[in-house]
Amino acid sequence: MGIVVQKYGGSSVADATSIKRVAQRIVATKKAGHDVVVVVSAMGDTTDELIDLANEVSPLPPGRELDMLLTAGERISMALLAMAIGNLGQEARSFTGSQAGVITDDAHGRAKIIDVTPGRLQDALTEGAIVIVAGFQGVSQTTKDITTLGRGGSDTTAVALAAALKADVCEIYTDVDGIFTADPRIEPRASRIPALSYEETLEMAANGAKILHLRCVEYARRNDMPIHVRSSFSEKQGTWVVAADQVARYLDNESTEGDTAMEQAIISGVAHDRSEAKITVVGVPDRVGEAAAILRALGDAQINIDMIVQNVSAAATALTDISFTLPRADGQTAMTALARLKDQVGFERLQYDDGVGKVSIIGAGMRSQPGITATFFEALAAAGVNIQMISTSEIRISVTVAESHVDAAVRAAHEAFGLGTDEVEAVVYGGTGR
Amino acid sequence: MGIVVQKYGGSSVADATSIKRVAQRIVATKKAGHDVVVVVSAMGDTTDELIDLANEVSPLPPGRELDMLLTAGERISMALLAMAIGNLGQEARSFTGSQAGVITDDAHGRAKIIDVTPGRLQDALTEGAIVIVAGFQGVSQTTKDITTLGRGGSDTTAVALAAALKADVCEIYTDVDGIFTADPRIEPRASRIPALSYEETLEMAANGAKILHLRCVEYARRNDMPIHVRSSFSEKQGTWVVAADQVARYLDNESTEGDTAMEQAIISGVAHDRSEAKITVVGVPDRVGEAAAILRALGDAQINIDMIVQNVSAAATALTDISFTLPRADGQTAMTALARLKDQVGFERLQYDDGVGKVSIIGAGMRSQPGITATFFEALAAAGVNIQMISTSEIRISVTVAESHVDAAVRAAHEAFGLGTDEVEAVVYGGTGR
């Protein structure tokens, strides 16, 4: 059998007991005949504690040194995990990102993987050892300094190693059973999605679902590496994230004997996001280049905007409004940058609203199905939810609504597309760390 | 001016406040015109906490993984120290042992440095940065795995880097003012020794003085690298450890204007050690090879014995007694190994005594002075101290006494050789960590 890459997050290795539990799972995989490569995050709150220490000695720690500091966290968890596996009678060897050949650019704190040269890992596998690799970290190709990959970094490490090692699968372990049709804290009838395409998962991740990080899915898509998101607390199948033309096969695998394969749902899931704010630039002269000037100012301030809507200008005034959403954390920076532009652009005023939420329906099936938008909006209307902004992609429809309407909108969409299950599963829809 | 290497132990970087204090000292050295390389240990109790974690997941952690785990400690302290220095407006770059070019053999937990290739450190110094290096760690030449140097490892790292970089001096910072003529907790009139030869310092270290580790002094001696042991809490001169023919010069430096140089004392200091036990093999047949068989059994059990004494055999019985001292921690192992030998050697019985202590007087001056032994033993007799065993080197005389007599023996020797000072300094004679 081939290579299996498994990634365990900080909550899976939070203490000695958790580490020993994870070790048993890893050894079981090895005993089933696989070569096993494990990517591990820092224990529980280690990273936050190290950041607190950094802030105690310096208000603005240099990125190089912050990366040196934070990478100590994985070093601790991976060594302990290797010891726990050793104690179960299997040899395990831990490797730092640098030792594992995770080569990055030199952008400290948000480095990108540019190459993976896993020679030492292959040697260890050949010699029969289980390989443990520190997630979230690499080494700069140019400076040879230690780097970190930023949020979602451990997931990305796992996928990158899986691709470089030509693994059969990259298993991402979490504390829930997989990716759900909606957040079960909002919609108790939400059900696990057996399989999703990379594209759908990207849309889910980009629109608020907190299971997988965007860059990890993007990396998997580029390398066609199947991801299996599953719980570290059970042996159940989770959610397979695979190429679009493979989704049906994974759904087939789950159909019980005698059943015909399930037909792929038109809508795979409902995502929501409460982390954004909305800014409206009111009374913008409807001239060529005004919108560009506004977007340039935001770009220069390093702000990623998400949805953007421009009204048709009122003929009488030749003034228009431009609204966009952005991360709430960037709200103050954006307002300052825009205020500086007031005289140049000549708009009337700025409105800031952080009482908004975004609800998205995602599904590859909507490509071939007319009427999806109508069904979605009718369901929202019936639930008394007012739509503020709309944005669409080929496989997604997103609306901005009042934050207080998010829960109702999620439930209405979930019901309208028949995503509910009758078995209510007791899960917590938690976020992943790094 | 040239390169200064400074080593700070765990108590000097125990928390954010201590780290900021040390950072100021380092920056002051840099501003005085030196290139500065700092070697740092893990913060306070970090190493012990990591060992506790290891023991929670595995009763016998593999050496490779234990080294991977423990080296996280220095990674944390060195990154924080670099940040604190950066916050004072000086650039500092931290380097792991591996990055610093500390090449070792592959004996995990007690690796020996076999080469130092500090190219990256030299580049950083050339670019004007302060260099921070993780103590206690290196990388194996053969396996490329991370290694640790064992006890005293950070001191050894500092001396090795100082030698490789051709530094002017290796400063070892501690919480006392230097090396003292005796432990001030026992002898309040003990005074700081301004300068000592490598050989005297080796004898002090080997015989219970806890300031510098044997291997670090040995490394300095081989490379003729001056060590300056001094307090991180004051600017005062500490103890210079230098080549024997340089000692007088460092003593000269301290003589106040107009004074003639102090004459080097015959005895430099009194060391004591309470960590040993004594085993006596009673009634050994006085035949060729019996002592060898006993020592071979201990060697095979990896036990380092210290003093060894064999009585002249009683003519009537042709039986002799062999006594030796060894670390108390090895007592049980040694007794077991010897018991297995009973029938083969045919001795009568084993006596184990852990109520012993060793008191040594050390001084290069004793080479040329007859009567030192007599003065020492007369002083012990006058203090009512009974001598159990005696061992000597060219510059040291050691005796084993009852543990309850150690303090009296130290004070008696200190007084007999005129080592007392009239200023009682308030110091704590603490041990160094790693």
UniProtKB/TrEMBL annotation, chains A, B:
Q: Which domain of life is it from?
A: Bacteria
Which keywords describe this protein according to UniProt? Amino-acid biosynthesis, ATP-binding, Diaminopimelate biosynthesis, Kinase, Lysine biosynthesis, Nucleotide-binding, Transferase
Q: Which residues form a coiled coil?
A: none
Q: Pathway listed for it? A: Amino-acid biosynthesis; L-threonine biosynthesis; L-threonine from L-aspartate: step 1/5; Amino-acid biosynthesis; L-methionine biosynthesis via de novo pathway; L-homoserine from L-aspartate: step 1/3; Amino-acid biosynthesis; L-lysine biosynthesis via DAP pathway; (S)-tetrahydrodipicolinate from L-aspartate: step 1/4
- The residues that hold ATP are 7-10, 174-175, 185
Q: Which reaction does it catalyse?
A: L-aspartate + ATP = 4-phospho-L-aspartate + ADP
What positions does the domain ACT occupy?
279-364
* The keyword Nuclease appears for this protein: no
Question: What do the Gene Ontology cellular component annotations say?
Answer: cytosol
**A molecular function GO annotation:** aspartate kinase activity
Does the keyword Amino-acid biosynthesis feature in the UniProt annotation? yes
Protein EC: 2.7.2.4
Annotated substrate binding lies at: 47, 74
> What is a single Pfam family found in this protein's UniProt entry?
AA_kinase
One example of a Gene Ontology biological process annotation: diaminopimelate biosynthetic process
Matches recorded under InterPro entries: AceGlu_kinase-like_sf, ACT-like_dom_sf, ACT_Aspartokinase, ACT_dom, AKii-LysC-BS, Asp/Glu/Uridylate_kinase, Asp_kin_monofn, Asp_kinase
Functionally, this protein is described as follows:
Catalyzes the phosphorylation of the beta-carboxyl group of aspartic acid with ATP to yield 4-phospho-L-aspartate, which is involved in the branched biosynthetic pathway leading to the biosynthesis of amino acids lysine, threonine, isoleucine and methionine.
- Family to which this protein belongs: Belongs to the aspartokinase family.
Question: What is the official name of this protein in its record?
Answer: Aspartokinase
Q: Which organism is it from?
A: Aeromicrobium camelliae
The organism's taxonomic lineage, starting at the top = Bacteria, Bacillati, Actinomycetota, Actinomycetes, Propionibacteriales
